[in-house]
Amino acid sequence: MDTKIFDVTKLNGDVLERAQICAERGAQTGMEDALRKIRSAADILRAGGLVAFPTETVYGLGCDAFNEAAVKKVYAAKGRPSDNPLIVHIARASDVGALTPRISPEFVRLADSFWPGPLTMILKKKAAVPDIVTGGLDTVAVRLPDHPAAVALIREAGCPVAAPSANVSGGPSPTKAEHVIADLSGKIDVILAGSDSRVGIESTVLDLTADTPTILRPGVLTADHIAEVLNGEVIYDAALLRSNHCVPGAERDGGADDGAAPRAPGMKYRHYAPKAEMLILEGEEEKVRAEIGRLRALNEKLGAEVGVILFDERAYREAAHDFYARLRKLDEEGVDLILAGALNGRDGIGFAVMNRMLKSAGYRVVHVS
Questions:
Q1: Distance in angstroms (rounded) separating the CA atoms of residues 62 and 46
Q2: How many CA atoms, within 13 angstroms, populate the side-chain half-sphere of residue 341?
Q3: Domains detected in the chain
């Protein structure tokens, strides 16, 4: 397949309004050119094609959420298990009515506070939403992204867009256009090459169908952020707490598969993993740094190429932004082993990054005392 790559870096937040004014005046601007490319991509998407596009979290691989044949092509292009549900992206909060039969007051408050943005909400689905999108569940995950190219694409397509991350399943998520090109060029129709993702990890996934609002996948919007808006309790799914080695009192089970269908992306299967072996070291920061230095020297003496991922203590947003890019850079360098320092899981964003880090390392953790 000949994958078209469209540069849409000229788009900004008021893209649709400004581009329309330019078109009416006959002006030829970089923004209008980018919007023409968006419209061409939207035509392909409506016709059942696959389009990768930037969002503020990571790049997504989109298709018409109501086109079952197109959704099957997304799973095939990624090599993604078909029971792993997809997130459906919309361009306006009012578009959610096409996906769910009921909108709760909690949904309205959260949408008003966090959309567009890195929050995915799980709602009861309408029968019109294909089961292949939801992994056979009776719920649908919905998000309104905060990126002008994503919003313009969805508006121009005129349909909700089902989109997992735009990478080969199991590998690090893509935060740069070059990551998508490396993974999916030749497998999909169009790549919209825009700016780097400014958040860097996937959205928080919140289940609003549970008795208590429950985070199924952590992100930069934490339980505390959400609870403040809802003025009530918000909890993390028990499986997250069991699998996070760096949360006090948590018993790590390695994310064991109990055979149940995952309720949100990233809950069941191997994710975010680099090509190299990876080991996480946790403990006091100075001791961890010293042990990483010792292990690096030992392995290099034995002929291995070793890469290191270390973030400054409390640099949680930097870690979220940079983690996947660092994994991919070390893969490009061909290292044999990655040594990573654990983040403090007591912080909500640190907890979210550790969720990805642990899965990347296959839950291989060493405590440094």
A1: 11
A2: 24
A3: 4-193 (3.90.870.10), 277-368 (3.40.50.11030)
What are the structure tokens assigned to 163, written together?
Answer: 């989109």
> Residue 340 — φ and ψ, nearest 5°?
-125, 140
Query: What pTM did the predictor assign?
Result: 0.91
Q: What is the pLDDT along the chain (369 residues), one digit of tens a residue?
A: 899 999 999 886 554 454 444 444 444 556 788 889 999 999 999 999 999 999 999 999 999 999 999 999 999 999 987 778 999 999 999 999 999 999 999 999 999 999 999 999 999 999 999 999 999 999 999 999 999 999 999 999 999 999 999 999 999 999 999 999 999 999 999 999 999 999 999 999 999 999 999 999 999 999 999 999 999 999 999 888 876 655 433 444 444 344 445 666 655 555 789 999 999 999 999 999 999 999 999 999 999 999 999 999 889 999 999 999 999 999 999 999 999 999 988 899 999 999 999 999 999 999 999
For residue 178, give both structure tokens. 């070059």
Q: Which CA distances in Å does 310 have to 292, 316, 323?
A: 9, 11, 10
- Residue 88's Cβ-count burial label (10 Å; 0-12, 13-18, 19+) is buried
Query: Is the Cβ–Cβ distance between 163 and 62 less than 8 Å?
Result: yes
Residue with tokens 């095939």: 76
